[in-house]
Amino acid sequence: MADSTDRSYSMRGRVVRAGETPASSGNLANIITVVRILLAPLFVVLLVLDGGADVVVDHRTEDFEEVLSDYDLVLDSLGGENLERSLRVLKKGGLAIGISGPPDPAFAKRKKLNVVVRLAIAALSRKVRRQAKRLGVRYEFLFMRGDGAQLSSIATLVDDGVITPVISKTYPFEQIPAALADLAAGGGRGKIVATLES
Fold first, then answer.
1. Which domains, from first to last, does the chain contain?
2. How far apart are CA 71 and CA 57, in angstroms?
3. How far is 158 from 175, CA to CA, in rounded Å?
């Protein structure tokens, strides 16, 4: 159960493909993402702003639909009503990508699913696709999967200082039980990392 300082924040920043720096990509789109953090609100705001956000919205005191508009991209991790509301903050031609929303027909086609499953998936996403079309925006479903090449690209971005992960605490591999207990306790301000001695 989350404590009283549990907050979700919307962030606006730049979209950069893996392996590119912001300067080389030429892809300076507005993006909204939601981050769930168990921290004191002021620290979270400063952390998010330091991470490149231009706008921070506390969902408990502000309606992001009233604060945000004309975005190029929304990455929605909640689905449902949040996805539908996110469509309304996009500018014409904008794209909402759902990672928990309904799969779309393009996903079913990429996965080479049988016709019956494709029809079922089309029916599941019909409402959100229809709403997106009516608003002049697009919706796509993103199936999250492990990919060694992408992880390698992300590691390069971290090594080059393009991405700076926030690390709360580092544990040697032998202390994994303590790391898991720390993780379960919550309240940290970043990732917990286990290291392997070579």
1. 6-141 (3.40.50), 165-198 (no CATH)
2. 14
3. 25
As a whole number, mean pLDDT of residues 55-83 equals 85
Residue 96 pLDDT grade (very low, low, confident, very high; cuts 50, 70, 90): very high
User: Are the C-beta atoms of 74 and 30 separated by less than 8 Å?
Assistant: no
The residue type at 188? G
CA nearest 68: which of 30, 27, 22? 30
- The upper half-sphere exposure of residue 134, i.e. CA atoms within 13 Å in the direction of its Cβ, equals 9
Q: How far apart are CA 139 and CA 132, in angstroms?
A: 6
- For residue 157, is pLDDT > 90? no
Distances (CA, A) of 197 to 51, 69, 169, 174: 30, 48, 16, 10
Per-residue model confidence (pLDDT) at position 187: 65
